């Protein structure tokens, strides 16, 4: 299409560089940054929290906690995070529709404040149950923000920058992981006395978002299509785009509005029954599941053992682990730069293809590490290469799919489905990985490699390219794919204002 090669206007881009940067930072710092941050800070105080749990049990009962219950309670503390994330993903759709995208992110900080309070006072209260409840609440917050933030940014960005702006969700996730690893160092908040402050430090990004996000506009698409407020939509566009000519973009928004008239917001289960959405739903479920089952989280779990085998001193392993998060951050930044040039499909196929390659070498290195003295170093290199490959493609592109493949009436429900799939898979991987490691030993990565191959093949054959296309153009192309030989039918008139809050 012509607009696929249309160069962006320089004055418009410069103005967007200021306004969109503020919008991205305000949404990201209390959004996916929280997800990555809370995912990584729990690793540093593992032994300290287990000791606190044992001491609390001793004070209450007069005897130590049974040995088999110590890892069980710790597993429960860790696994409550993805359980909360699943609840948050299911809550994100109704919140995004009834409150709007921006207000949902703001209200979401209620969970963060409550969790930080529980973490901060858990030691003084002598209650490890407060830690469990806090982990559940930060999980709910992460589940909401992981869905609403890319929806908000994808709907606010112009089509020539939509992919790059939506990719910032992955950048903030990686940044949160790195910051969590840094703050969790023993020299900072990773010591035996400071761990309540470490867990409660999630309050800081929440406060930053509460102070900055109210100053920025709501999603123009939400204001026009969901609320029917043309004046508010125009005002939001003028703030986001500046003095540039908005006639073309307003015409696209009106086309979207016309396509959605007479319809209400879909419920998640209705997506599976609609033949017009079968390719979109299949892509969402398959690629969302593949991203969590590709083995990246397993690499993080195995990294410390690989570093130790590479003769890195135990006291230095924590610094080497920061390099893994730094790799994902670097890859996400690179992906943000190139996504509008190479497209979504190429990044996904290339990412999964490289992950298959490095995962195979990693498996071979694990098998031969006792025979060849340099194999542990090759395994360590593969850890960094695997994480780089994940960050440059699947980590960010997968989160854009629900924004680009679904229209305004189906997008919130699509994010609910995608979030439910991804958080469920994350929970199952965390639960089953110790058993996979024990049962397959050095071949533990073979199942993950099969998943990576499936992700690359599915992307190549079934996922359409969306780079540089408007939402209406994407919808028309998907209609042709779902109904070969049948052109999209004429629009059926409906009420002027779409009350999509009927979810």
Short description:
This protein has about 500 residues and is an all-alpha fold. Helices cover about 75% and strands about 0% of the residues. It has helices at about 10-30, 30-40, 45-60, 70-100, 100-105, 110-125, 130-155, 160-185, 195-200, 205-210, 220-225, 230-240, 245-260, 270, 280-295, 295-310, 315-340, 345-370, 375-390, 395-405, 410-440, 445-460, 470-480.
Count of helices?
Answer: 23
Q: What string gives the helices and strands in order? A: HHHHHHHHHHHHHHHHHHHHHHH
Largest sheet report: none
The strand count comes to: 0
Mean pLDDT: 83
Question: Which residues sit in consecutive blocks of at least 5 with pLDDT less than 50?
Answer: 1-13, 490-503
Distance separating the two termini: 35 Å
Structural class: mainly alpha
Query: What sort of overall outline do the alpha carbons produce when their principal axes are compared?
Result: globular
Instruction: Report the helical percentage.
Output: over 70%
What is the C-alpha radius of gyration, as a whole number of Å? 23 Å
């Amino acid at each position: 299409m012509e607009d696929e090669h249309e160069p962006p206007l320089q004055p418009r881009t410069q103005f967007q560089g200021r306004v969109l940067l503020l919008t991205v930072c305000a949404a990201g710092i209390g959004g996916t940054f929280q997800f990555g941050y809370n995912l990584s800070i729990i690793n540093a105080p593992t032994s300290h929290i287990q000791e606190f749990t044992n001491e609390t049990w001793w004070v209450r009962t007069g005897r130590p906690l049974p040995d088999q219950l110590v890892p069980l309670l710790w597993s429960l503390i860790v696994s409550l995070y993805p359980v909360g994330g699943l609840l948050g993903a299911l809550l994100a759709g109704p919140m995004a529709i009834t409150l709007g995208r921006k207000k949902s992110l703001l209200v979401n900080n209620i969970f963060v404040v409550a969790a930080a309070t529980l973490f901060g006072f858990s030691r003084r209260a002598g209650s490890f149950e407060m830690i469990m409840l806090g982990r559940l609440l930060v999980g709910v917050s992460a589940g909401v923000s992981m869905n609403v933030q890319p929806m908000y940014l994808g709907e606010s960005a112009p089509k020539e920058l939509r992919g790059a702006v939506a990719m910032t969700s992955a950048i903030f996730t990686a940044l949160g992981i790195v910051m969590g690893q840094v703050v969790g160092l023993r020299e900072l908040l990773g010591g035996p006395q400071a761990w309540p402050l470490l867990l409660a430090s999630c309050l800081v990004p929440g406060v930053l978002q509460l102070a900055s996000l109210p100053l920025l506009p709501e999603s123009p698409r939400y204001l026009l299509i969901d609320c029917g407020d043309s004046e508010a939509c125009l005002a939001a566009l003028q703030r986001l785009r500046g003095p540039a000519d908005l006639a073309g973009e307003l015409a696209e928004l009106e086309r979207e509005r016309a396509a959605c008239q007479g319809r209400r917001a879909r419920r998640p289960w209705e997506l599976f029954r609609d033949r017009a959405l079968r390719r979109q739903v299949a892509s969402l479920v398959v690629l969302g599941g593949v991203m969590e089952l590709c083995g990246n989280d397993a690499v993080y779990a195995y990294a410390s053992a690989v570093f130790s085998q590479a003769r890195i001193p135990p006291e230095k392993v924590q610094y080497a682990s920061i390099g893994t998060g730094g790799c994902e951050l670097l890859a996400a930044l690179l992906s943000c730069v190139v996504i509008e040039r190479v497209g979504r499909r190429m990044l996904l196929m290339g990412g999964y293809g490289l992950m298959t390659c490095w995962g195979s070498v990693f498996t071979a290195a694990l098998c031969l590490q006792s025979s060849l003295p340099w194999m542990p170093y090759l395994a360590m290199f593969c850890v960094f290469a695997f994480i780089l490959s994940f960050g440059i493609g699947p980590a960010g592109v997968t989160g854009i799919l629900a924004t680009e493949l679904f229209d305004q009436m189906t997008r919130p429900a699509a994010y609910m489905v995608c979030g439910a799939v991804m958080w469920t898979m994350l929970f199952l991987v965390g639960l089953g990985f110790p058993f996979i490691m024990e049962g397959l030993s050095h071949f533990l990565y073979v199942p993950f490699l099969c998943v990576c191959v499936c992700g690359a093949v599915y992307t190549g054959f079934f996922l359409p390219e969306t780079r540089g296309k408007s939402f209406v153009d994407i919808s028309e192309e998907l209609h042709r794919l779902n109904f070969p030989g049948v052109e999209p039918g004429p629009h059926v008139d409906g009420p002027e204002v779409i009350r999509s809050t009927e979810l």
